[in-house]
């Protein structure tokens, strides 16, 4: 059994119109929500064995905050192809992973993550910023991912976990 956690980056800032989309940082809410979601993963016993993140600034910052909060052992790996590429890129990257990883967290962007999630569980789910989808796949090897439909175990959002 393999576990896949799919997370949309936390809320980003539009305050500086001179920054490229790639360099947009998190806003105040994003800096608050990313570690909260990481702590939630830790509390659920879902600290990942591997974190893969888009290399865009808002996703990188999300990844580092989540990693610290969930007690991840290591640094998130940045994947440039997770920024503005076809959703099938996620499949290709995941299918090439070493099988020693049982639980992987992927951090990326809408709409590509939502399409990837649709393909993975055959049901559309909207991913708000900082949302995490928890999926289980009945596979022993990551290379088998393309052959299987996963089960959506949970979908958490900051709004549902931390109502204010």
Please bin the fraction of helical residues.
25-40%
CATH topology: Rossmann fold
| The CATH fourth-level homologous superfamily | Phosphoglycerate mutase-like
Structural class: alpha/beta
**Oligomeric state:** single chain
Approximately what portion of the residues adopt beta-strand conformation? 15-25%
Span of the ends, CA to CA: 36 Å
Using only C-alpha atoms, the radius of gyration works out to 15 Å
In CATH terms, what is the architecture?
3-Layer(aba) Sandwich
Average predicted local confidence, pLDDT: 95
Number of helices: 5
The CATH top-level class label: Alpha Beta
Report the count of strand segments. 6
H-E string:
EHEHEHEHEEH
Shape, per Cα inertia axes: globular
Q: What strand line-up does the widest sheet have?
A: 3-2-4-1-5-6
Whole-number tally of structural domains: 1
List the helices and strands and how they pair.
Layout: E1 2-8, H1 28-43, E2 50-54, H2 57-69, E3 77-79, H3 88-95, E4 103-108, H4 112-121, E5 132-137, E6 151-156, H5 158-161
Parallel strand pairs: 1-4, 2-3, 2-4
Antiparallel strand pairs: 1-5, 5-6
Give a quick precis of the structure.
The protein is an alpha/beta fold and 164 residues long. The protein contains five helices and six strands, in the order βαβαβαβαββα.
